[in-house]
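Lipoprotein
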Amino acid sequence: MRKILIISAIILLAGCNSAKKGTSGSTAKYTIENLRKMDAQDIERNYPDANIKEGTDLFEEGTDERPYTILYPGTPDELHITWQDEARSRIHDLRYASNGKWKSETGVKIGTSYDELTRLNAKPVSFYGFGWDYSGAVVWNDGKLENSGLRVFLAPQNEHENKFYGDHIIEATPEEIEALDLEVTSIMINYAI
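Structure:
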């Protein structure tokens, strides 16, 4: 009887571990860093339900033409991929702006506050002004996320003064930053650097 209990316990523990592996695998499927080595065929194979849309467009303020792929268009899981080549064999960058399935292994997500971003970076971050193509772009200031390839964009949740607009790093007091109530509204990871 005692042997049966021990064997049952071992089987039960093994079953629990395999269930955990399945969970982490499905979560990993939607971790943006895991897409790095994929080409367009890999993406089609791994995301068969993504209703993939493809095309070519201008990027980098209209200076570079690149092919792109959109996964889950028009849904909270929408993900934009631009490619380094016409064959769509190497990802240039990817970006998303909704709090859907996609996550970054850094812990940064859509809705992350300025204070949380500073904590994750282990050093204060700076950000560019609002109202232009790279509105609210974060500068990591040699913090923990400096070499992650991750680019995030902040937006104020409250009204703000004109001095917070434009293509320059914002100099603001802690009180002004708190009043802006900044949150991450877009996440991009660049694999072409």
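Residues 1-30 form one domain.
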